[in-house]
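Support request, please re-run this one:
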Amino acid sequence: MRDYEKPGRSLVMARYGMAATSHSSASLAAVNMLQAGGNAIDAAIAACAVQCVVEPGSTGIGGDCFALISPDGSDRIVAYNGSGRAPAAATTDWYTQQGFTTIPRQSPHAVTVPGAVEAWARLLQDHGTRSLGEVVAPAVALARDGYAVSSRVGRDWINQEALLRADPDAARIFLPDGHAPKAGTVHRQPELAATLEAIGRDGPDAFYKGERAADMVAHLRGLGGLHTAEDFASARGTYETPIKTSFRGHDIFECPPGGQGVIALMILNILSGFEGRGDPLSPDRLHIEIEATKLAYSIRDAVLADPAKADVPIEWLLSDTLAAELRSRIDLTSCLDDIPAFLPPDHKDTVYICVVDKNRMAVSFINSIFHPFGSGIVEPNSGVLFHNRGQSFVVEAGHPNAIAPSKRPLHTIIPGMMAREGRVEMPFGVMGGHYQAMGHAHFVSKLLDYGLNMQAAIDLPRLFPKPGTREVEAEATLPAATRIELERRGFRIVPPSWAIGGAQAISIDWDTGVLIGASDHRKDGAALGY
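Re-run finished. Output below.
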């Protein structure tokens, strides 16, 4: 039960349709679409297109997306992989010969062919009821006429001034007057408005073929990239079979690798052997969650990759045998040291959207440019800001995730879905780059092990173990007694650069017909319903 004398958010409740996103304008666009007769896919993509304008540091049409869809509220869930591929000419040998040991962030080599626009068009064609033009219209208007920069967006924008200043076109568009626009000011992106309008009118060919594609290819090649017109023209996402695990009588669904959804399921498998009771923020419980995360993530970077190009042992990763082996290594008297380190880039950004419509189609949808403002590279004519997802590749011959022709990199962005007894109970997601797998497991455990409602689970303090060290990033709201005890056990608690992640979720009460939504206070969004 919420204490109404304390600051916080109430659960949002409605009967017919609901959307939860990290930006109020996106939630409004989704609900408007639902009220106009659109379905959950129409609404999710309308919201995403808006966020590609009003949250330019978090997402964009120069990025990738993934989706989980229940067309009818059942547990017959469809997964779509809308991630892009490396250029056909990209080989590990080429990068090695050029002296690369890693992929630089602000370089064309960090740019795989963006998959988002193709995914939007395909999902609308197969599952939607509205045209692409109708769906992107709200985003076009905001990009053309201007939008008010929101609080969290404005704060994150300021942190990326140096990156944006290093690219003349990024600086022109995103640093008007030489600086990031402050929260409460109006910002416009006319080039992006024209590109979105063209996509709405002519479909994905307006992005992957023709003049705009030629401009993007020329721009990337001019910076030393290997991209070709054929790389863009051949961009296609794929339908895939979701993976799942059972946790406390519920089925938890994720997209399969190359995303890290399997790691969220691995953490839940480890946690399934520990009883959840008492305080969800007790030192023992957080110790277990930290170590389960460290163990699962240590495996992640060794084996996760594009399964079309590498052998990814999914059955082994989700096996009870592996979960038991990892669980046995957790010692509640002290933190583990002998875990291989992974060394990913720090701090990424993303937007997550969930929508449920009046027919109970449920959509879990995530769209990202990876780091805040991605690669920081903008194609000037189209206004497209490119992501830097290619940084997730490894430049090491023989590694499962080594960069290779037309290969997809390891992805951090993961939509989630919970079901029970043949019906969807909750689309959910937790943003925050590498945190997402831990975030999914932490959130689900707080619901099912501790009986918290969605908003209470989202509001809890978050922490995340840093790779290869004893350091654990912890938000300032973590209780002091818990912090002291974790440090006594050998963990080094440090503050994060900013609040960890962001989450949204919608629960379907099949008995009453009511939808219940929650949205994270760490972002600028809201759950809205009608």
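Residues 341-347 have pLDDT under 50 and may be disordered. The longest helix spans residues 283-303.
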